[in-house]
């Protein structure tokens, strides 16, 4: 047994955190969110070479694996940084295996996204149908990064078989409608394909989607971990300055206990997330169950702790000026993103061998 | 920037148990399985010590799992000890099984680290072979959780000490030949530091000087919990562990391991309850349909499974840190909180899954439920864990 | 618009208890207070029926609180019955006290409404004076919560019926002379409607024909819970209540009252636990400071007080609706859910407040805790209440 | 005992609900909120004569009492209608007793508000100080309706005694800064008095503030009740149309149980709120405890149920277009408004006679 990240991983986490602090302080991020345009962040993220971290070299990435991706997700959330494009890309990119051209374009900043609803477990989305000419027709609501993606990886059914096909988002047959989320650090869009041209992707669709599901669970859980850890920091800071009846509120047992319970959740979340990441990365036979447990537990705890943090802040936390609500909304969305706890609990229940 | 970016990575965090650990786990589970739920139900109802069980583990050499080899043990760490107690508890033996050997597993730590060679030679081998039962005499009614407030006093008298005082919640005192007894040799008010002036003994529980009264309690009834009234107990100085006045420090070493082991027992209990719930959910049919098909039953159990798994990870991390000589107070306390919480919740849900039958002792979940509740208050309450984390990890100011 | 605007208003919702009700409450509390926690601890440990307590309430005429006056009772409603059982439970007697008389209070409802004059004259006065103990023979192992699935069968034979079958969770059967027994006189598969073909009897619990086996259980041990094995029990047709085949309808009338009374008992138990917790919080000092001063202890208890109060309001509303002949299924079920939940939570927090001492039976909260847990599964589980509300109030589709 | 509202009260509730449905459907309300200007609603509310309902005739109101006010609060919340002005006014107006001129102005639409932070129990706010000339100086953050009020009732200390004084919001000495809340159906502002002129109010300040506290607790609880009841309706409706795996999600036990638990909370909340309203109106000796229990329990349940409703809706509930978040945010703010549950629990703990 060995219970810590490697020095390399710690160094990476630190470097990325520093980069975020420099490039995307909250004051700047708020500007991007208010103007509803986060492209500045996204291009800088690509330009500074972070996009390929955690992506296998075979996919033109910089190596590393799901643990590095989880570290990235955790830090992005901790900074309340935009992450729809990044998440969509790392989930979809394995579908481009063997397509050097597309991979190069992707890590050059041309986002690729799975054409599935953002709120379902990726491999449970209903596949679309392809006609003989390879044209695809169908509507998919709430696609992560659906509004900005340059290409879509489309789960489709061809002669009764599940395949993945590539659709150019700029094809005339593609219509997309941005949907505004309460959490503006992520974005979705409804996408309608009307006889959109598509080309085949030579990967095992079932396998790619199953992997995407497990990876999505881990990365959304990591996001919730980052947001929760940050909310705990904010709550503790606040409770060390704010006084009531002449004493710091942090000295009230009710406040102290609430903060300590958040700490317990964060501690558990960290173990669960990185265990699941290692398990999925190592293709452990129970990997999917570990990922499911991480998604169900950590995102649910995130919601619980978001409420605690809000309560610990009092009314100040409800004001637009205060940063808490950025993380609060992020934690809330993480609960639904890529499948609500209930859906993942179904998987876990199977693990219980209940009829 | 690039310098910090990882290139190809090796396996990161290795969560696999070692082969030794897997073997221990398997062997313990097999041996414990020889004692079924009926055995524990009978012992619990009869308030009778599980001698057969205890002796089986003694014969198997398990009681010495952490005892150094030169004293007949195996010299394993807390990780292995935790696995042992977790499996013992998970077998359905629960706290009755775990408490019957809990102290033999790690309670002698102060003796091992600070005891005289003579004391070790005399006692440790007998602990390992199961012949010697020892109880842990620390808690006092007046002291709450601040051990420095104990008042049981050991007065030096020639080569002996004469001890008077009162202890409470002493597990297994009825069944024990000796007691690991914490006393004050300097009164609290006279001590320079409040942690000074405490002295630890390993000595005989002389029934003529110590009145032992079992406490009537809600569960874990196969192993007694007792009040001790100590009246002029004469103890030779040779029974003292380490230096006079240093007892508190010796005890302190053991606090985190204690919390980790209790966490492991809670975890095992939760596993046992969940196993029963799943079995009942699959077997019990209402209108030709197993009740396990109901989401209303499935989700809480699935959630409990995930919580137990999460708690287990934190526990493993804590024991790993301890065995690797790293600080682990944060993780040990978090593990205790999470395991006690998840364990009780699993037991509660298992009982609920059984409907009316859950209330009947014959389905055993009622026993698990009664035992699991204990772990939210012992060895320290969940609230005390939160106080610790709030004050020492989050550095929040002193409470009101 | 103006028409709809209220002018000067009279008192709106009047939540005051009537004078009668306040008197009942007070008198019951005083009588119950004569039997202290030690009494209940002893009875519970000895698994012994609280005869002295039962007789005191019989002498006081309380057992007939809802029985019509022409049969020696007082003819009060469910509101008063609920107040009685709530206070009995709140005295610290808890479920042991409540269950000792529960059936006398309202169990005879089907007899009162549908029984023959002869049956009433013969039995009701003896219920009121406490001489006659009756148990309620409905639940069966195979039937789950769908009472229409019971299989205990009454075969007509001349002027008699001959009954065979099995019942489970029959409270107080050991102590009872008679049983209110629900049977099938037409098999489920032969009945036109599933609710047809059930027949209710009030008859002697002939030990030579009925084997009564107590169930070992977690709590409420002063009053037995039993399995009944009925083998050719011969019952005169005169012991039949109302018409053959209508038994289910007769029982149905009693379901909502049953839930309200159990809610009242849970509520009382929560009050008893909270009272103990507050007392301990005020008395127990750690370092010269009562632990009750800690927010970490105060807030959960304050929250429990508020929850109990909220649950009580819904219960009062439900009994008021019933006594005023209005539909009350929604409120009765909600009250059961809220009271069972708040009652158990209060008991759990009271135990936690006591720290280690909570686990000792001598502080009584452990007993309350064991008893309060029963009310989350009996007479029906919280999940079943939610199913009812989801299906019949929110009109959600049938479950998967 | 008597457990129902009077026919008159039921008629009032229905009439007011109908009025809201006609004047303030959500589509219209959203317009007001987006433009950050709810004055249209407020003037119509006054013009159509609702402002005086529940206010004693001695105060130039239309009679009725706290129960009618609670009905109003419940319906306003159920409609997600703006209510800061209304709530501020009904809490402050008793301070104007005997001032026919001011009362007339108030019910003519000139809002009067207590100059206390919106997130504290009204009678626990620190009083300001008055100089010999009657000028008041001091800063009060987060005042309910502070941005739109025409007059402020200011708790002040005069010769060691607590008094209430009236400040004209248009006085040169008054500076106010709007603070945006996540819940835009209510508004607050930071108010700074810089030697603002004030006139005395001839009421018992301590008494008026104590009453205001109890009434605030009941009315905010009633607001939470209305929002929760509406969220339950939305969740039930949704679960009866939305299908998963070919069946209505309402048929999944997990969904059904979650909805039923919300129902249980609503049922309890209704009893608690109207009991407390009657108790405070009837000056029951325990009235304050009843009000405290209502505030602590009902608003906490509201937050719990808001999360359930969100979970039952899945991702759709996170979209800006869906109405759920209006009620969700409202329920969240109700928890903090006029004192968080923890503060009211302090009062209840006193009721426990804990040391």
User: Count of helices of chain B?
Assistant: 12
Q: Into which percentage range does the β-strand content of chain A fall?
A: 5-15%
What is the average of the pLDDT values of chain B? 93
**SS content category of chain A:** alpha+beta
Helical content of chain A stands at 40-55%
Report the sheet with the most strands of chain B, covering strand number, pairing sense and barrel closure: 4 strands, mixed
Seen as an oligomer or otherwise, the chain set is heterotetramer
Low-confidence stretches of chain B are: 1-12
3D architecture notes:
The complex is a heterotetramer, with two copies of chain A (355 residues) and two copies of chain B (400 residues). Chain A is of the alpha+beta class and 355 residues long. In chain A, 51% of the residues lie in helices and 15% in strands. Chain A has eleven helices and ten strands. Chain A has helices at residues 7-23, 26-34, 39-47, 66-78, 84-92, 100-107, 205-241, 253-281, 287-313, 324-336, 341-351, and strands at 112-114, 128-130, 136-144, 151-158, 161-168, 174-179, 188-196, 199-200, 243-244, 247-248. In chain A, strands 1, 2, 3, 4, 5, 6, 7 and 8 form an eight-stranded mixed β-sheet that branches. Chain A has a two-stranded antiparallel ribbon with strand order 9-10. In chain A, a hairpin with an 8-residue loop joins strand 6 and strand 7. In chain A, helix 7 runs antiparallel to helix 8, helix 8 (253-281) runs antiparallel to helix 9 and helix 9 runs antiparallel to helix 10 (324-336). The mean pLDDT of chain A is 94. Chain B is of the alpha+beta class and 400 residues long. Helices cover 48% and strands 14% of the residues of chain B. Chain B has helices at 19-33, 37-46, 51-59, 78-107, 109-114, 117-128, 247-252, 255-283, 295-323, 329-353, 365-374, 382-393; strands at residues 134-137, 153-157, 160-171, 178-184, 198-204, 210-214, 225-236, 240-241, 285-286, 289-290. A four-stranded mixed β-sheet of chain B has the order 1-4-5-8. Chain B has a four-stranded antiparallel β-sheet with strand order 2-3-7-6, with no helix packed on it. Chain B is globular. Chains in contact: A-B, A-C, A-D, B-C, B-D, C-D.
């Amino acid at each position: 047994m060995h219970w810590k990240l490697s020095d390399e991983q710690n160094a990476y986490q630190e470097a990325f955190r520093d980069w975020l602090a420099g490039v995307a302080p909250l004051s700047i991020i708020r500007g991007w969110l208010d103007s509803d345009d986060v492209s500045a962040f996204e291009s800088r993220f690509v330009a500074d070479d972070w996009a390929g971290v955690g992506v296998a070299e075979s996919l033109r990435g910089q190596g590393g694996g799901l643990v590095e991706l989880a570290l990235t997700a955790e830090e992005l959330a901790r900074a309340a940084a935009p992450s729809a494009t990044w998440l969509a890309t790392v989930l979809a990119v394995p579908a481009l295996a063997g397509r050097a051209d597309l991979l190069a374009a992707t890590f050059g900043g041309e986002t690729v996204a799975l054409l599935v609803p953002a709120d379902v477990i990726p491999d449970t989305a209903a596949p679309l149908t392809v006609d003989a000419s390879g044209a695809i027709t169908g509507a998919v609501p709430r696609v992560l990064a659906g509004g900005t993606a340059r290409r879509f990886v489309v789960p489709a059914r061809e002669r009764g078989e599940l395949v993945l096909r590539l659709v150019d988002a700029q094809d005339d047959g593609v219509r997309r409608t941005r949907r505004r989320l309460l959490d503006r650090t992520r974005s979705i869009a409804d996408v309608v394909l009307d006889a959109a041209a598509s080309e085949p992707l030579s990967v095992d669709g079932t396998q790619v989607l199953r992997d995407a599901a497990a990876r999505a669970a881990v990365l959304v859980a990591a996001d919730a971990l980052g947001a929760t850890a940050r909310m705990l920091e904010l709550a503790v800071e606040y409770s060390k300055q704010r006084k009531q009846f002449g004493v710091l509120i942090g000295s009230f047992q009710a406040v102290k206990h609430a903060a300590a319970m958040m700490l317990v959740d964060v501690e558990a979340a960290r173990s669960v997330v990185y265990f699941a990441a290692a398990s999925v990365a190592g293709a452990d036979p129970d990997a999917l169950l570990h990922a499911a447990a991480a998604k169900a537990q950590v995102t649910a705890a995130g919601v619980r702790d978001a409420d605690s943090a809000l309560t610990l802040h009092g009314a100040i936390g409800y004001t637009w000026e205060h940063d808490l609500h950025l993380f609060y909304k992020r934690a809330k969305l993480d609960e639904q993103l890529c499948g609500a706890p209930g859906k993942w609990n179904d998987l876990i229940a199977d693990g219980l061998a209940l009829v | 920037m690039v310098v910090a970016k990882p290139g190809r990575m090796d396996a990161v965090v290795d969560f696999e148990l070692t082969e030794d650990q897997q073997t221990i786990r398997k062997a313990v589970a097999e041996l414990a399985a020889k004692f079924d739920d009926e055995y524990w139900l009978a012992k619990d109802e009869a308030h009778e010590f599980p001698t057969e069980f205890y002796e089986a583990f003694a014969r198997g050499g398990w009681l010495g799992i952490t005892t150094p080899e030169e004293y007949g043990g195996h010299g394993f760490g807390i990780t292995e000890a935790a696995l042992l107690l977790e499996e013992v508890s998970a077998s359905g033996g629960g706290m009755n099984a775990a408490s019957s050997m809990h102290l033999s597993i790690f309670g002698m730590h102060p003796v091992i680290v600070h005891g005289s060679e003579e004391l070790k030679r005399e006692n440790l081998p007998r602990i390992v072979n199961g012949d010697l039962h020892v109880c842990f005499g620390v808690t006092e009614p007046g002291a709450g959780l601040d051990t420095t407030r104990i008042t049981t006093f050991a007065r030096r008298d020639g080569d002996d000490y004469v001890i008077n005082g009162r202890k409470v919640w002493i597990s297994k005192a009825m069944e024990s030949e000796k007691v690991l007894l914490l006393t004050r040799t300097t009164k609290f008010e006279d001590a320079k530091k409040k942690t000074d002036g405490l002295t630890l003994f390993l000595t005989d529980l002389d029934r003529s000087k110590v009145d032992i009264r079992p406490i009537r309690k809600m569960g874990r009834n196969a192993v007694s919990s007792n009040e001790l009234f100590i009246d002029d107990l004469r103890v030779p100085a040779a029974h003292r562990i380490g230096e006079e006045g240093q007892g508190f420090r010796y005890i302190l070493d053991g606090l985190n391991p204690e919390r980790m082991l209790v966490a492991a027992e809670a975890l095992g209990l939760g596993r046992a309850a969940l196993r029963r719930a799943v079995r009942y959910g699959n077997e019990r049919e209402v209108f030709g349909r197993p009740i396990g098909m109901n989401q209303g039953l499935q989700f809480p159990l699935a959630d409990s499974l995930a919580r137990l798994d999460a708690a287990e990870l934190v526990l493993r991390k804590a024991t790993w840190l301890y065995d690797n000589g790293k600080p682990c107070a944060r993780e040990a306390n978090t593990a205790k909180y999470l395991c006690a919480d998840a364990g009780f919740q699993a037991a509660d849900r298992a009982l609920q899954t059984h409907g009316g039958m859950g209330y009947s002792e014959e389905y055993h979940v009622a026993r698990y439920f009664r035992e699991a509740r204990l772990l939210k208050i012992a060895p320290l309450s969940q609230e005390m864990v939160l106080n610790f984390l709030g004050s020492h990890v989050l550095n929040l100011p002193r409470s009101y």
